[in-house]
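Consider this one:
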Amino acid sequence: MKAQLETERLFVRSFKPEDWRDLQEYISREEVMRFESPWDRSDEGMHKAAEDFSKGDDFWAVELKSTGKMIGHLYFGRTGPESFRTRMIGYIFNNCFHGNGYATEACRALLSYAFNNSGVHRVVGLCSPENKPSWKVMERLNMRREGHSLKAVTFRTNEAGQPIWWDEYR
């Protein structure tokens, strides 16, 4: 399914192993990863993540055309049986670039490509109701909220080692 996509300000492209430094820059920020599962943020962990992402079709790097800097990435993995032609979309962006419409622009390009060229029938996204910027991106993409699952996901534990459960919009 991979192609390089181009928008007015961005390239949405395959990951390259050398993207690891830009990836580490934003994955290492607690405010960026607040709603995400923990990652290995070490140099070795980021090298491995960028290398793995460069081999598959699920992760797409988002690069500023003006500077060549990777400012975030998209996840676009298959969910459910292949015959359902359903993908899950996700996005993580460097918070230095939040508020500029880059996530919406990149996702819009990927969705257009997927629906028009790849036989995708349905796309779903999940996020915490507390993550207002994320669900606002989905609304700008004309996705509709189909569910609010209570205590659906956990990535972290409290001081006693008990899971911290979060609600989830679908």
In short: DSSP finds five helices and eight strands in the chain. The CA atoms of residues 94 and 106 lie 14 Å apart. The chain has a mean pLDDT of 94.
